[in-house]
Predict the 3D structure of the following.
Amino acid sequence: MASYGSCTATLEPSPGTTVSIFVTYLTAELMERMHATEGGYNLVQLGGLAMHVAPRGPASAGAAKDAGSGAHAGAGRHMGAGEPCFELRSWAYQYNHKLGCIELPLAGGGGSPIAIAEIPATGRRFPAATQTQMLAALRVALGDEPAEGGELKPVPAPGSSAVAGAGSAEAQDLDAWILAVVNNPTKQRRACKRLALHARAFEYPQAEVVAAL
């Protein structure tokens, strides 16, 4: 859990899943600033990717115009008239949590990473939850008073009525729980330590840690 109360995110291999992402282009100075905000993460270079990246900057308009006349951008694929030429990229830098992702214990048995429902994707392998649903699930798993140690309590599938926290009263209760955790360093430390016990290490064969932040 972040100091401001959200459940943080990281990448997890999911073969067969197609997901929409944002690519950030940084100068060296901005990269250093970005590093300073990513404590707890590693800067990782991923290879073997199939990313179709939209044109950027002033060239975007020209690329879209040229698409109708058969021009291609780099090794990209041609789109329809008036649409941009997407470049096919095989590698990218990204920040990945040093512990990996949480493998949330589920009431039906076993555990699973949880996908971010707000991010469009097809062919998901993992159950998905919104940020609110995930925080509600963590509240069930940790309890109202996060203890120093011990396993997490299994939770119903995120997004179910048992953990959704969507109603007015439930939302207020969830807000109060989040504030109680993030405003108390001891509670937050205990919560993070227990979540770390359920961490699933990041395993991707074409990943290289460039820097530990």
